[in-house]
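Subject: Sanity check before I submit

Could someone independently write out the structure tokens for this chain? I want to compare against mine line by line before I put it in a report. The sequence has 200 residues.
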Amino acid sequence: MTTFQRKPIFDAARVLMGRGFTRSDIDLLDDAIDEALGIEKPKTGARRTSAAGIALMHKWEGCGKRCDDGSLQAYPDPGSSNGKPWTIGWGSTGPDIGPGTIWTQAQADARFERDLVKFERGVSLAIGDALTTQNQFDALVSFHYNTGEIGSATLTKLHVAGDYAGAAAEFGKWIYNDGKPMNGLRNRRADEAALYRRAA
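---
Independent answer below. Compare away.
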């Protein structure tokens, strides 16, 4: 599948239009790009991660392991005994990723956007109609993106019950990989808990 960089498309459209974008213009162009990339769109009214939430995930899922030409190379999980799962781009894993996998930045960005919709949906299903601020939602999506455990985590149950202090305290328990505490996970969970606690 051909992938696209969004900025050049937006820049070209801005020149053609001879003006800046309205919010509606941005949404329409984003929809067109998503359709071209085959990115599944969330249902109308579905919760979406804010820029702050995406920035947090990008901080901890940084596109590391770059080749000299700027492309991205898959790398083994540094905390697991067998190196699995192999990871590339913005923390992407899966059966299509392993030793020798090489992506462009555009491929990494497109995969992140597609996967983000899936994890947002997972959080939305897990929390149902529980009262949730944008910052709480963003923190939960980041947690789920990294652990895949939003459906079974105690912090989800506490959040749904309205015990926000208890839920925030649960983030710090998810710092282990192969039974070993990891400083990177400890720091990420601290960032997620701080975002979760932040006033709307």
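---
OP: Matches mine. For the report I'm noting this point. The two ends are 39 Å apart (CA to CA).
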